[in-house]
Task: structure prediction
Amino acid sequence: MLQAAASDLGTVNPDLFVFGCTSGGSLFGMDYDRKTCADLGELAGCPSMGVVTAAAAALDRAGARRLAVITPYIDDLTNAVATALAEGGREVVAAHGMGIHVNVALADPTPDEIVQFAADKLKGKQFDTLFVSCTNFRALEAKPALEAHFGVPVLTSNSAVIDGIRRRFEEAPAQATPPGRNGDTPRRRIR
Result:
């Protein structure tokens, strides 16, 4: 189903394909995420990026060595994310999930509830970076309060992928495509 969706998305001539599932990308490790995303990008006819790979790159840029992980997930998915992010030589000192098992319910916790959960679970833990997983979780909204509470950099799935997209487009040379059949203006293309 994912391959068919990538092929269908290719019909809109995208500049970038993002596999936007942190837990799904982490299930079989970073190499699998990179390969899966490359395959999906090929089907879509454009470069690709996975959220968990973007998160690992953001953690590298932040100099994260001792990492705490918070998720809305069940334990198996929380552990998969923690294990994938540890592949970069980081030590995961704590990984806690809220135990939510219904996909649409991942967005239910409020930013205040996310901060309270993290404060309760990470009390007394020593870490230099906090990663809050899930693109459907309201962690980006909670980020400022989490940073204020813990006094360390906080990265979220969404902040990592947004930064990854921004960096890709800023660092890649602009290539204009010719106007479309309807005379629309050329777009910047990344190939």
Notes: The beta strands are 17-19, 48-50, 66-71, 91-97, 129-132, 154-156, 175-176, 188-189. Confidence is low (pLDDT under 50) at residues 176-191. The CA atoms of residues 161 and 173 lie 20 Å apart. The two ends are 25 Å apart (CA to CA).
